[in-house]
Amino acid sequence: MTDLMVNLFSYSFITRAMIVGTLVALCAALLGVSLVLKRYSMIGDGLSHVGFGALSIAMAMNAAPLAVATPVVVLAAFLLLRISGSSQIKGDAAIGLIASSSLAIGVIVTSLTSGMNTDVYGYLFGSILAMNQEDVVLSVTLSVVVLFLFVIFYNQIFAVTFDEAFAKATGVKAELYNMLLAFLTAITIVVGMRIMGAMLISSLVVFPALTSMRFFRSFKGVVIGAAVVSVLCFFLGMCGSMLFSTPAGATVVVVNLLAFLLFALAGRLRSGIL
Amino acid sequence: MALISCKEVTMGYEHQLAVDHVSFDIEVGDYVAIVGENGSGKSTLLKGLLGLMPPRSGTISYGDGLKRNMIGYLPQQTVVQRDFPASVYEVVLSGCLNRRGLKPFYTAAERKIAMANLERLSIGDLRKKSYRGLSGGQQQRVLLARALCATERLLLLDEPVTGLDPVVTAEMYGLIRHLNQEGITILMVSHDINCAVHNASKILHMDTQVLFYGPSAEYRKSELCHRFLGGESCD
After folding, report:
1. Domains of chain B, first to last
2. pLDDT one-digit tens code per residue, A8-63
3. Contact A169 B84 (CB under 8 A)
4. Angular region, B226: left φ>0, alpha ψ -120 to 50, beta rest
5. In this structure, which of A105, A123, B126, B232 has its CB flanked by the most CB atoms within 10 Å?
């Protein structure tokens, strides 16, 4: 095992993927608890599709991928939140529309320019080679911003997650915190999708929260549990991917699935005994 | 001066008028029940009083130094909440949030308020329990404790006894009456008119417009009350 570790970290691209991936896993898990409980988990999926479209266009224009994708996905997040809040098209249907349209535009743009190549495969299913030095700096900065804002506004996020009507009625600006949540989610998705892939990144949002909820019963417990589970699963998934030469993103998802089953069992045992 | 004063308030949805030129005053210490059939506009009026929905015309004003962030609210439970992983203490403490604006983290003083309100509703020993594991009556107490953290002046209750069994319902009404006697003004929306007239001191009966507003003793003698209860006596 130690040999494996030493081997792993002797490659600088793996170290970079590990650093960024761990931070993304942490952010996604924290936000995921609130998103899952608010029934917003599909937003993560929708945003990653938008991210794919934005990345394809950035590549066609030879622009920096993160610099193009971040504002586009943040905009899409606000749009999705608005739509699910007010209009006649209901939230889940709106996400379906926006997600498939972005994916379609992305595919058309790539096939017209570079053609479907390994880059596109990497965007869809993730690649640990994706991160260069610059990307790492930007990703780490964004992740730290997400973590900082989440901790500062933890209590407000709890309040609007548990009961938006009460929060609004007692003078808490619920819309503001919903937007904050959407904003942070958008950033996390953009940063994470290059390693995990557009198709798989939403699992980092949904899985740890659901896993942790099987076992823990307080909000703080669920949040901390999700963070730990997420980071651990990401790490094990990366090791597994090296060991068995499987795709990194997919392996992380499978490890998350195993953790979920384990926790579901543990939760059953706990409520059976207690 | 009145605590809440509504003047000619009109509210509605796209093509529909829900509240039509409603005017009334609520005085400090009142225990008012808003009654009416389904679709009579009582929930819409409550939204207006809470500032969740702006009136189309007319004014809703708070008096006697009452501000938006000094109101306690007991909403109807949502599906999301019934299955929400949170401890009782976390839920109750979140009622203190409106005191602090943008400042992060709760202070010791706020934690004390949360504890005091848990004890006040005799659910102190449930503090560490998970909210989703509680009975319906216990959950209502937790939400009431949270509302009390948000206010010392005015509680707005939206159908506080829906889905509770008779024994727990009676306890809940006892609790609300007790809080009113401690000086908190209560405004309750209810379709359980029988209990409303026996508990509240004033009745606001509405059907888009105000049909009756006055002391419940007077309401009990009125033709309107008899008709609403389908011939049953209100006494």
Report:
1. 1-66+156-235 (3.40.50.300), 77-152 (no CATH)
2. 677 788 888 888 899 999 999 999 999 999 888 888 889 999 999 998 888 888 88
3. no
4. alpha
5. A123
